[in-house]
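Still learning. Show one?

>
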Amino acid sequence: MLFKSPAQDLLSKNVDAIIYPSMWYSELPFLTSLQTQQMWSYAHDIPLLAAGANNPSLGSGGTGIYKGAEDAIFTEIVASGGLMVGVYSQVMLRKRVPNPEIDDLGKKMDEFHINIDPHVKEFNSIVLDTSKGGFYGQLCYNNNEENQICCDFAIKTTTTSSDVKKNSYTYYLVAYSGVRSFNGIYNGGVEVCGIIACLNTSLSSCGQRFPNYDDIEWPLKFEQVTIKASFEKNENKTQYPNSVLSSIRPIPASQTVWEKREVEADGKKLVERTFSLTASLWDDLTVAVVDYSPILDSRLSDEERIVINANQHVQYIGVESVKNVDLIVFPESTLTVNKTTAVELIPTDNPCFNDSSYPFYPIFVRDLSCAARAASSYVVVNLVQKVRCRIFDHGENCKTHGYLFYNTDVVFGRYGEIDSLYHKYSLFGETELDRPQPCDDVIVFVENTNFGIFTGFDIFFKNPTRCLSRYSLDGIIFPSVWFSELPFLTGRYFDWFFFELTLLAALQTQQMWSHAHNITLLAAGAKNPSLGSGGSGIYRGVEDPISLEISAEAGSTILPSDEKERDTDELAEEMDGFHLGIDPDIAGILHNSFDFIQLIDFLSQHIIQPFWTLGKIFLTRECATTDCVVILPPT
């Protein structure tokens, strides 16, 4: 498998797949069995049917069915004896077999014997400094003119603290070019650019595993990894995308990108290769949204109200239920709400360091920044931002104040820095605020997951979603203060739908959008039941939502919550104290003497989002007012 003949020579025969029986002895950090099988299938983009002889005590084993650049259909490596069969069929080609949790698999590999690459000590290397949040630079191996390689790294990391003292890996960036022996049987030329795990800061400890998986903690998370290098263009040289997780299995192909580009340098033809970790790792990402009830005491000044609500935000960021959460989302309009209390914000600044470098940040902004830093979480809050007008900016605010004022979602990063700023595009009655031109296309990058972000009424319009459409997004962050309206702009999501028309409220608006676009939506709603605002949820596109909240009761809630499921009647009774507006245009529809079927036909032509209802809406020809809209129980 590792040599040009016969493995690569077969590819010129236009084969459709490779049959590969083996008895492979795994070696860390680059040549464990499944790792090697996937890199070969991935690099040549051809199916590989690999059957491995299993002897864990000697370190042999590893079987898989691979689909080239797509995710593997089946992989298995075990630390115990026995037989494992993967059945290959056309049905399985269309659906990948889900893998168990990485940690569960990692524990099972404690008894599996793995060899260590004896040449690791020869690598040129630098320790990855986790305190700097990443590494952006180049590392070269220069043995002689014929054996040299330079590796470009772009790595972004975050670190979480732990109360339990356990073992954790140290990571080295490595570069190597030379000839190595494979157990004294074969020799082969090897060029390496990589990141490898080590037991400590000694290079000789690299490629080894801690003996007890339960004694390992994982404080370091790789949010971005890109490795790039150029190689001599030569038919006898092949580059491979190589990865291995703690489970001794490779990262799924769909979560990486392997790119090739032909370049020239100093008159030499080269192949530039880039290997990137880019896809969402949702199993490793934890999120929370806060259905927040702001303190609106009229006896307080604007400044006092802001400080009190900011302190509440800080308390929620620090509660036990969101400890070690990666992303926390707060609603719209729960801090500053007008231009008299607007604040200036500069991207990449860290207000937590409110010293002479950043002297002008209000205390409440500093406190939010420091809370995000203390929790090591991304935190999204909403406030009014003021931005100094440029010479080509126009509008009343520029003429009067010299500033533009935006409804702004502020994303604080894990270290308290201002990571991103999004300016709301579809303003709703916010006459004193400005609309960005053009709409913002802000992407928030959390744990290899790309989030778009928009606010409130933005959800109903082509922009800013069109601005975001150019990106491959894994989810949407959606702070809002939503005023529910019957029959189409209010309601609660239910487990099943009985009819064609929905009572669309905050939750139904959120659900319909997530469902229509089949994308995760993290919706945080500002709660004021007496005014009819509220409703938060974590939605998963066409799948069931993870958690929902809308209530007429006072108080705030962090989602996901442990609330037990309740039936429809109980939920409906709870909403008696929740103010719901009525769509004033419904009477105009009824004046046209539409019967029920005609109304459904009308709606189906004009509504592009999916609507259903748990109950029926009963209309008669005689109805001329909204009083004739009656909600019936499901049948």
Remarks:
- The longest strand covers residues 170-182.
- Confidence is low (pLDDT under 50) at residues 86-99, 488-504, 586-635.
